[in-house]
Amino acid sequence: MAPSKSKHANQTCVIPGGFTVLSLQFSTDSVAQHKICVKEHRVRAEKTTQRPLDRTLFVLNIPPYCSEGVIKELFSQFGPVQSVELREKPGSFEHSGPKLAKYFTPAQKQGFRVGYIVFQKAISITAVKSHPHDVPLVVSTEQRPVWTGLQKWIHQYKQSFAQPDKLQEAVDTFMQDYDKRKEEEAERQKEAAEEQLEDEEGWVKVTRGKSGTKTRPHSEVSNQKALQKESRKRKRKELMNFYTWQHRNTQKEHIAELRKKFEEDKQRIALLRAQRKFRPY
Question: Using CA atoms in the order 112, 116, 120, 124, what is the torsion angle rounded to 10 degrees?
Fold first, then answer.
C-alpha cells in the first residue's frame, strides 16, 4: 500500500468540465479543508481588457471569509496578481461607472462566491493548475491573519465609523469626478446639437439655452479647440457650398421655365376659347 500512496501523492485533481480542484485550509492548526475549483477563463464572446483570455483564472466555491485582498495574497505565490473580482454568480464584466468609496457602496451579501483572478503573466495560470490538490493553501497565517467570528464582527463595527476628514476627502473626490464627467457629456451634446442645426447651405441656427444655466469662462485651450473645429468644418464645406450654389441656380432656372410655359399655355387656351364662339351668320 505504501508504494501506491506515494505514487498518487502530489498530483493534480481535474474534474469534468476542465476544473482543477485545489484545497484551502484556514490555518495550519485546522483539520478540515475546503475545496475550490479553478479553470482558465476562455470566453470568446467577452473581449474586454479587464479579463484577458490568457491571464484570467476563473474560481468557484470561494468561502465567505475570503475577501478580494485575501484571494490576492493567497494566489500571489503563483505570480504577481493584477486584479481580483468577486461576484455572487458568473457573468460578463459590467462597467458600473466610477469606483465608489466604501461609504457609498452597500454591504455585500455574505456567502460563497465566484471569482476572476487576473495575473500579470500567463505562466501563473499554468502554475495554479499544476498545484497538487493534497497540498492545501493556507488562508490565515501570522503574516496575514484573517479574522472570523467575534473578532471579525468587532473589526467591522469599528470600521463602520467614518472619520470626518476621510469622508470629506472621499466626497470631494467624487464630486470632482462627477463635475468632470458632466462637463465632458455637456460638451459632446453641444457638439452633436451644433451638427444637427446646420442646414444644407452651411448656416447655423442660434438657439437660446435653458434658463438658469451658468456660463463658464472659455479658457485659451477651449478657444483654440473651437477655432480648429471651425477651420475643419470650413474646409469640408467649401466644395459642398459650391454645389449648393449651383443647385440653387438650377432651381431658379427651372422655376422660370415653368412660369414661361404657364404663360404660353394661358395664351393658347384663351385663343381656343375665342375660336369656339357661336356665329350663326
Answer: 70
